[in-house]
Amino acid sequence: MARHATHFSKPNEQTKILKICALIPIEAFLNFISIVEPNAYVYLDPWIDVFQAWALGSFFLLMCEFVSPSAQFRDVFFAAFKVPQRRRNRDPGLGGLEWYRKQWFAVFQYLLISIGVAIATDITQAINKYCLESNSIHFAQLWLSIISNISVAIALTSVLRFYGALKKDLKHHKPLAKLVAFKLIIFLSFVQSIIFQILRSQSVLNETSTLTYADVNIGIQTMIICIEMVPISLYFHYAYDVKAYDITQARPLPISDISGSRFAQADLEANPQLRSTMINGLEGQAPTEHTKQLYAKHADARYYGGFLGLRAWASVPDPREIIRAIRFAFVMRSEAIKMKMMSSSSSSSQSNAGVAMPHPPPPPPCYDYHSRG
């Protein structure tokens, strides 16, 4: 995190990377507090899910940035995007833009659900209606666990679909390594919770003269998670390598630049060598990959983190981007529903009149969630 903060050359991307990486120290700290103060475990554990949802949303936004920093270009890109279909599925499926917006909504619903579950857990625990050890329908633990598991399954499935559809286009950004690094945290926590639940239910792990109730139900599991954060953090150094943001190195470009770069006039004028290469070396031709990498290496090459990367560090707890993304998800959802209702109403009226509808309804207008707040 410190290296990204001091090499803050692409704020739009690195802000999201810092938020993803922050999950490791946050989860380790909250689990450590649960070991020291077991009575706080039930109150703190659901908030770990909130931070995981925050990081998952940031990961999704990072992949969107890899497509293009411009929300308008992303809408154009996905409008022409052919969504991969399963072999057995003969249904033509959704259009690219509608598919993209559904994945967006599916990812960010998890953050809202996790916040609601965390608040409900704390309230029901305080009034003795939660009961961590019970799966009875009379306690909140069962219902909140079901809601949380369904929500996280939907969000993770959407991220996997999004990655699977774009993995070839985003290959130069190492999306698989980034996805594996993030999923390791959630996967290990999920699997371990199941294993420990089985061990306790089968009386394999019981209280002894050396193991207390807190050790069996909370301490051992949370301690293992804290230890696992160390090797995972080392893997994060590879997956979210800062080399791509070093201004002395050629940097990977978003799809929008690779598929047809439009170089800013100010950048070309500020760099005579690059301008000469572009004008004289490529007269009447599209930019080559070498020229694009030259542009990515030299144009607008500076760090924006300030002294010791303080501006970059300040962006980590800033919730405005996530709030705008959630709002954008619901705006897209509501407009998609309206357009579907209008389409159904129009089709019905045309059918009753015996006239075929000449054209499908226009898609919802493009929105830039970065500009809305």
Automatic annotation (TrEMBL):
Keywords: Membrane, Transmembrane, Transmembrane helix. The keyword Transmembrane applies. GO terms for cellular component: membrane. Residues 341-373 are annotated as: Disordered. Coiled coil: none annotated. It is a multi-pass membrane protein. It comes from the Eukaryota. It is found in: Membrane. SMART domains: Solute_trans_a. The chain crosses the membrane at residues 20-44, 50-68, 104-123, 143-164, 176-198, 218-238. The keyword Transmembrane helix applies. Its main location: membrane. This is DUF300 domain protein. It comes from Exophiala mesophila (Black yeast-like fungus).
